[in-house]
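Thread title: Can someone regenerate the structure for this chain?

I was given the following input by a collaborator and told the matching structure tokens would be attached. They weren't. Posting the sequence so someone can regenerate them.
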Amino acid sequence: MKIRLPFAWQAAHWRSAAFLLALSVHGTAMADLTLAVVRNPDESYADYDTSQRYSDFVRQIRAAAGTPVKLIQYSSAFEAAKKGKEGNFDMVLAPSHTIASLMHAKYIPVAKLPEQMASVFIVRKDSPITSLKNAKGARVGMPSFESLTTSLARAEINLQDIRPKTYFTEVKYHQLGDVALFGLKNHSNDIAVARENDANAWLKTNSGRIIFTSAEVPRQGFAIRADVPAATQARIKNALLNASVNRNIANGMKFAAADAKDYSHIGSMLNTTPTVLAGAKVISVAQGKTLLASNVPVYDVRTEEQFKTEHVPKALFVPYKEVSAKEVDFDGSDDKFDLSKLPADKTKPLIMYCDGTSCWKSYKSSKLAISHGYTNLYWMRGGLPEWKTAGYPTEKN
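Best answer:
Regenerated them for you:
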């Protein structure tokens, strides 16, 4: 059976497609700058209003920059982050976890949409689950794997040292966020992850309760690569922030000023190591200093260059060569760590550290040592950054 769409819809769709094609062709021929837009998972390329909003946005950025601007659109936040790190675009409008990731590739946040968002974990009202700690065996429904909502939820799961593949019976990712909530209602999952605003709206007409709410982060932001001329950066930022200039920008998208501090928290959340580690004692740098004074050996698992530049006094260098993903369920089969350099007596105490809470090498080396029978391991999670912040001395080779 053929389905014929209304002529007006077809005409609008083709006008949108033709405009974007013309914009891209024009940009390919003479573009001086490239703007990437990362669409939200629920935004369709076939939706005329959405396409027109981003087209208007590009047109006004072009006017502010005073130079041609090519538009690149991504539906994948991870792909956008990868391409940005390869230098494929000069500016980016994206969810905040993408902005945080691109800050490591010399992109400077200059603006954000004022709306903040948080992720929540929801259960049915009669569920025995009260927190993630007693959710073992639960079936979990989440929005798209790459969405900001799910990224915040996965970060919290990581922080609690939960391994989703073995802890939960099932984890399903859905392109549309409300599918997870529907699954909660029809009993196809036990926990649903959703944006806080969506969850509160759903709870007005459905029975359930929130068992955890993440920290709030900016929903969307705008960043410019550092090598874009300063004068051009200033003109674009002014267009985004100055009400007299941007009153029509992107059909009502209103921006507020932003800088790296607005995204540092989410960057830390997404990259940070768990706060607990089964089989090890997680210690502060003060506790590490006390143990070191008692001649407990301390192992630095960072790179050789980092170790030679600066390290904890008396630290022994045993590098963890990391290939695996920075997550609790990492596959360390391609990682390399020489366990023979650790004490032969696996009951003797030892300390491991690396480059702070966002460095996973000491977490992974500790897990590997524990899996090979070491029973008295101290993980100094704060690593060298917290050691230095505490004012403790360091050595150089």
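The chain has three domains: 7-115+218-270, 119-214, 280-389.
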